[in-house]
Design brief:
By secondary structure, the chain is of the alpha/beta class. The chain has 10 helices and 16 strands. It has 2 domains: 2-109 and 300-322, ornithine cyclodeaminase, domain 1; 111-295, NAD(P)-binding Rossmann-like Domain (Rossmann fold). 33% of the residues lie in helices and 23% in strands. The strands form 2 sheets. Strands 1, 2, 3, 4, 5, 6, 7 and 16 form an 8-stranded mixed beta sheet that branches. Strands 10-9-8-11-12-15-13-14 form an 8-stranded parallel beta sheet, with helices on both faces. It is globular.
């Protein structure tokens, strides 16, 4: 069994175009119905804000991988100087069921999350003309997920991005931002409102206990609602172009999609799926001034696909520990 911890995973590195390609392949395989993904259960006890989630899946085709991600999310861990998320991902040989790898790091989730956003951004940009103007990317929340989105955006779309804005309720020190060629394009905003009004791509990566965004988005903006619980109803009830990764997964657990469903009557048939976007060009049906809202709950097949990529690369590079 191959063991990969955070140190080994970082040594393998983050090849963002390859990681996004891996998920694009996974979406095509899913579109062909060659996958299995039970609805993930949430384990809660004592404080209901905390949760541990089991995410089993099989993805076939060229990926042909099976396994389970077991992830704990405890938002108040920052008070203990601990990360919010902790997880392990176990891969099984898809033909025999023999455990083949274990990835003992929550970075699998962070990489998967940013890669899904990268896939959506790729298809969003393909659906837009160059006349739609420069990209101004705003990231609300500067924890690990926000930082991974920043790195992904620089790597995948840096030449197209005119400016970055970042904001966090906790002060962001200048030294917390990489001092590279993109640093001069970056503004540390004084409020989410400043960021929101300046940017046409908004990425929410928070653990906010309550919804706070009450402003309607600007025409043609792209809302990557990664943290799922940031928008008040009045801000998004007028959005018609809504994409989800999986309706059954995302329309629960107090997400913004469930809010739209319960309070504004949103139905599954009124949304597009990732398969619709990636395999059928669904975003091209919308006018370029239409706001697009993407709400990804997080699909286990994507975690397994990303874990399989790291396990394969680790084996190729001789990185990781072979357990007897």
């Amino acid at each position: 069994m191959l063991y990969i911890g955070e140190e080994q995973l970082r040594s393998i590195g983050f090849e963002w175009p390859e990681l996004v390609d891996q998920l694009e392949a996974a979406v095509h395989i899913m579109n062909g119905d060659h996958y299995s993904q039970p609805l993930k259960p949430y384990l809660r006890y004592n404080d209901p804000i905390n949760r541990i989630i089991a995410m089993p899946a099989y993805i076939g085709g060229t990926i042909h991988a099976a396994g389970l991600k077991w992830i704990a999310s405890f938002p108040d861990n920052y008070r203990l100087n601990l990360p919010r998320a902790h997880s392990v991902t176990v891969l099984n040989d898809a033909d025999t069921g023999v455990p083949s790898a274990i990835l003992n790091t929550a970075l699998v989730s962070a990489v998967r999350t940013a890669s899904v956003s990268g896939l959506m951004l790729r298809h969003f940009l393909e659906s837009r003309s160059t006349a739609s103007g420069p990209l101004r990317v705003g990231i609300i929340g500067w924890g690990p997920i926000g930082q991974f989105h920043y790195e992904m955006c620089k790597n995948m779309f840096g030449d197209l991005i005119e400016s970055f804005y970042i904001y966090d309720v906790r002060t962001i020190a200048t030294e917390a931002v990489p001092n590279d060629m993109y640093r001069e394009r970056l503004t540390i905003a004084s409020s989410w409102e400043e960021l929101y009004s300046a940017c046409n791509i908004i990425i929410t990566c928070t653990v906010s206990p309550e919804r706070y965004i009450n402003n309607t988005p600007s025409p043609g903006s792209f809302l990557l609602d990664v943290s799922l619980r940031d928008y008040q109803l009045d801000a998004i009830k007028g959005v018609k172009a809504i994409v989800v990764d999986n309706w059954s997964e995302v329309c629960r657990e107090n997400t913004d999609i469930e809010l739209l469903h319960l309070e504004n009557g949103l139905q599954a048939a009124e949304t597009s799926s990732l398969s619709d976007v990636v395999c059928h060009g669904a975003l091209r049906q919308y006018d370029e001034r239409e706001t697009i809202l993407f709400c990804p709950m997080g699909m286990a097949i994507f975690d397994i696909a990303i874990a399989a990529w790291f396990a394969r690369r680790g084996t190729e590079l001789g990185i990781g520990i072979q357990l007897p």
